[in-house]
Amino acid sequence: xxxxxxxxxxxxxxxxxxxxxxxxxxxxxxxxxxxxxxxxxxxxxxxxxxxxxxxxxxxxxxxxxxxxxxxxxxxxxxxxxxxxxxxxxxxxxxxxxxxxxxxxxxxxxxxxxxxxxxxxxxxxxxxxxxxxxxxxxxxxxxxxxxxxxxxxxxxxxxxxxxxxxxxxxxxxxxxxxxxxxxxxxxxxxxxxxxxxxxxxxxxxxxxxxxxxxxxxxxxxxxxxxxxxxxxxxxxxxxxxxxxxxxxxxxxxxxxxxxxxxxxxxxxxxxxxxxxxxxxxxxxxxxxxxxxxxxxxxxxxxxxxxxxxxxxxxxxxxxxxxxxxxxxxxxxxxxxxxxxxxxxxxxxxxxxxxxxxxxxxxxxxxxxxxxxxxxxxxxxxxxxxxxxxxxxxxxxxxxxxxxxxxxxxxxxxxxxxxxxxxxxxxxxxxxxxxxxxxxxxxxxxxxxxxxxxxxxxxxxxxxxxxxx
Length: 467
Prior knowledge:
The chain has 467 residues and is an alpha/beta fold.
């Protein structure tokens, strides 16, 4: 039995168009669009009609950087795949790409299998995986080819966290050379971890233990230096590069310079760098620990450079790097030693709303909002056509968005499994009203109708920006 839904009367916004159109959904996919009020649209019949008059009809968000259940610093990120994907849906995100982790001494396959086991049957929305490569060797390099062939087409490496995830320049170069051959995309955490560890040790020796020193030792220049080095290594390898969670104006400048040279270099930033700053890290009574993440929050003057980068396309994607740890019992592990505070912020539920607020504030156009939150992440990671747009043949991942509703972000009302909000008390204009995932209603008029297990694993093609 086929099932049909019609969404009528809304303003359909994609990365390329804004049109008052009705949307026909059939068997979980977009079947057709037609201008509202035309005979073609009026002729459609369906079991379910959704009135979107006065609302936006937008593609479901694609959050290409999440860490559900990530082990870090002796604890685990507090959102499971069940709670995290449910919260994502509440925030208008209908696809996540999470990071499977290779542990040192283990294979990529073991890491990937472990993450499949965590996610399978638990997700409210669709999901894919990147692979964190922590141990580059000849076997790992061969495995990269196999993973690309089966739809895990991106690999994250770390220039930070010596002794945990860290890769040296030789290991990075080898992985980049492999990705140049197999079509994979290297994602880089670009911070000079070796130098940062020296500064951490020196700060603690001086008795500088509060959360704010986390930001002071992870210097913007060390993010810029690592970004520059990653770009040059990628250039040597003839490989594309995607730099994750760019926070510093100096790093944006490195990306802009590379792109001006015509290199296949891409950059991502996150809402925390656009809306928060070192002022938050300096909050008293250990409250600053709530804002400890890496790359760290920067002084406010960096924000204008990030917004500009998003407008000029020197930064292409806004993801969340969602990696929540509760204040009580988790962030508190670092009382008296900022280096022991688990790194990460909650945000998967807030991204689409915060970026709509940026539209209201004049930082972005509506189409650019959809481009950086839906279409570009889908293209970057081989999902476009299926995800990230509203077009015939695409999955019916659709959000009815009320651009005039007002809300206050708060831990009291969010759905992430964490005891604080990084944006507590922030007033926002715009709110998700109804969410469909592959044509099934997940959120209906601000009520959760989804279920664990609806979300399916989604293999990805290679980056769609590369010929």
